[in-house]
Every structure is written in C-alpha cells, then in structure tokens.
Amino acid sequence: MICSKKVLEVSKVVLITGSSGGIGRALVDEYLIDNYYVVGVDTISSGLTSDLFLEIITDLSEFAKNENYREKLLDEIKNLLPKNFSTFVIINNAAVQILKPISGIYWKDWENTLSVNTVAPFFLVQGFMEALISSQGHVINISSIHSKLTKEYFSCYAASKAALEALTRSLALELSPKGISVNAIAPAAISTEMLKDGFRDTSYKLQELKSYHPSGSIGSPEQLANFVKSISDHKSGFLTGAVLEFNGGIGGKLHDPGS
Of 83, 120, 153, 254, whose CA is between 20 and 30 Å from 68? Predict the structure, then answer.
C-alpha cells in the first residue's frame, strides 16, 4: 500500500527499508533533517507524517519472490518520486531475524530470511539502476556483526548477512565504474526496543553486554544513523565495496577463559 501524496520538487531522495523499526526510524529522522525526500518501506506504519516522507507498506519477501508484484511496486514508487532530483541513496536496512536451533529450522525460515535480508536488496538496486547511475548515488547495506561473529540459533540470520556482504562486494565491482558507491555497515549491539525487550527480565545482562564492548557501551540508533548518513555524504567515489564495522571494538576482542 502506498500513501498517495503530492510530488514535491526536492533535489535529494533516499529509500530506506525497515523504516518503522528503531534503526529505520532513526535513519528516516537523520535524512529528513537534511531535507531529503524519504521513501520509507516497511510492513507496518511508523505513524510519521511529513511532506518529505512517503510511506510504503509492503512485503519485501513477496517483492523478492514475485516478479509481477515487484514490477508493480517499483513502477508505483517511481511515479511518486520527485522530478529532476540530483542525489539518490538506497539504504537496505530491513531484516528478518529468526532464532531457532538447527533441528527446528525449515525451508520457509530460510526462504523468508534470505528473501528479505539478501534478495530484496539486490532487486531494489536493480530496479533503481537508472536513478543511481544518473545521480552517481549510494547503496548502503546494513549488515551485522553476525556475518562474522555469531551465536547459537542464528544460522539463517548470520548466513543472510554474510551473503549481503558478498553481494555488496559484487555489486561494487559492476556499479562503481558507473559512479555508484556500494558499501555495507556491520553494527554490533544497537540499543533498539527489540534489544532492550530481550533483556527486560534480566537487566543486569544488558549492563554486562555493555561491558563486553571495549567502548564500554552499546550503540544507539541515532549514532548508527549519523554514521550511515556520513557515508552517503562522502562524494569521492573511492569508498566502495567496503564493509565498515560499527561495533564498539568488540570485533577485535577475544573471549576465552583468561578474559
């Protein structure tokens, strides 16, 4: 479902998937502050109203799997974009995280996770190639520390994020010569409501999680959004094909009995 609205004359456009979640909403706010026209894509409404915000309620899993569904959605979005914009950014932030032991994972879990986390980002880039090329735009894929350092029950999620990073490098090889920068950011723990809900009955463990990070803290959605924005503000084109870690130093910390 796309909320119909008047097409504005603005010069900067960003498309953000997963726009209603903690990180997604922080990204939306960060770009609205800089007068971007923000296209937010999610399965639920954020409740945000702004002349610069176009909200799209859709199913990215279906978008990835169904060609007719995909083409219709892409056409509808393109018809509602501002005319003659000079900057175009895609931020693939939406993600499915299914936590199950190996014995409890079924094909539908793999299909849903890979469709949203890996395949939909590819088809969004493919679908907006013309806008990316004409603006020499940016693609920023939100990966995860789980692509390299993971835990029990994260098989589907970890594999999908590792695949997203491989996709980032592959896209960069083809798109960088066209002036498009393609990068990924791999955050560690970010203080979203989802994360905090997981520690609601064991708040001491949340403090312990903070202490695991050499920074002595976990990241906030606003900090991550600000970092993402700084990447899309970078204009040289030389930063491309990179996976940038945003993890408070925990990615370099060895945990063993002597820690």
Answer: 83
